[in-house]
Design brief:
Layout lengths: L9 E12 L2 E6 L10 E2 L2 E3 L6 H13 L8 E10 L3 E10 L14 E5 L11 H10 L1
Parallel strand pairs: 1-6
Antiparallel strand pairs: 1-2, 1-4, 2-3, 2-7, 5-6
């Protein structure tokens, strides 16, 4: 008699920053050395042990795109759960409308400012990116 062994998928807690400027939103490509390379996403990343979503976002935005964000300028937007074959992603989505510094591709990623008055035709998008864009339209 065969026993089925259920694999437990990892739960990954991440945060995404929705930077908005003049009705445009920042979208970045995933670097080649990460999962889903070349897919478009909102900047952010994994929460480290003991971090809140806002603290993680402030750290990640500095590392990824070189901007400084004050926690008081962050507004919670949504929570999204996305199941992938190997993991379950729990994503806090935070809107940012003020930051210091120029947005730069610190990890060699591509960067675009998408006009929210238009449908996004950038491909490929991560499923969570599509969900966030739908919240913004």
């Amino acid at each position: 008699m065969k026993q089925s062994i259920a694999r437990e998928r990892a739960v990954i807690k991440v945060v995404a920053g929705v930077l908005i400027r003049d009705n445009h939103v920042l979208i970045t490509s995933r670097p080649p050395d990460k999962s889903h390379p070349g897919y478009w996403e909102f900047p952010g990343g994994k929460l480290e042990f003991g971090e809140t979503a806002v603290v993680a976002l402030v750290r990640e935005l500095k590392e990824e795109i070189g901007v400084l964000v004050n926690a008081d300028d962050c507004e919670y937007l949504s929570f999204i759960v996305q199941d992938y074959p190997t993991a379950r992603v729990e994503l806090d989505v935070i809107k940012v409308t003020k930051w210091q510094g120029e947005v730069l591709p610190m990890e060699g990623q591509d960067i675009i400012w998408h006009n929210l008055a238009m449908l996004c035709e950038i491909e490929p998008l991560l499923p969570t990116t599509k969900q966030i864009l739908n919240l913004l339209y």
